[in-house]
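Hello forum,

I keep getting stuck at the same step: I have a sequence, I want structure tokens, and every attempt I make locally crashes halfway through. Rather than fight my setup again tonight, could one of you with a working pipeline run this one for me? It's a single chain of 236 residues.
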Amino acid sequence: MSTWFTRRRPAVELPRLSPRTPPATVRVDLHEVMPDLLPYLGQAAYLQLEQFQTLSRVAADTDSLAAKEVVSGAAGLALSKHQGIIAEIRRRGDEPAEVMRPFAEEIEGFRALLVGSDWRETLLAALMTGGLLDDFFIRLAGGLPGDVGPRIAHLLGSDSGQEGLLEVLRGEIAADAQLGSRLAMWGRRLVGDTLLVARSALHLSGNRADEERIEPIFTELIAAHTRRMDALGLTA
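Reply #2:
Ran it on my machine without issues. Output:
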């Protein structure tokens, strides 16, 4: 079966944003395009598991003991988020593996795209895509039924170890004059595929009304990505 990982994907047109001026927050009613609760939880859980695996790979690949400690800590935080979402699935009497299974192939394909030419590129990929997808799923949590939304939003909004990961990358960029431009280019390549993962969570009809409804959300996500790149001195 063809997926958006195996077929050639069209270029994603991104809004032009000022890197240091966040847009005004726009409240968007997502109820008409929201996924059902279990698919939301299954996709969110699998994404956190893949974040754990990506960061674990980085920790294994770097020779820096200081970087290993920081990256391993962030991997542990991603695993904790995964386990928290799994607990929500079990609370509803469902089997987590079965709920996650429909997303396995596409998310594993996405993770393969995050593997860079060295551990520093892979770390940037984990940092940028993890932050963007956490932001997105926190936003979607506002459309979940009952009290599960606030619990998931709180869980996903908890510490991800991003500050430590930023410090690791800042140190690497300072020590390598060529690294910054390479990471900036790599970071730009990641955005389109990450937005496709986010869009795959929504029930979109393809009509103009749906596109207009979700546009402010993706504008906010790209602005947050730009600020993360700014924090590294990189151009988004």
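The domain at 37-231 is CATH 1.20.1260.10 (Ferritin). If your local run keeps crashing, start a new thread with the error log.
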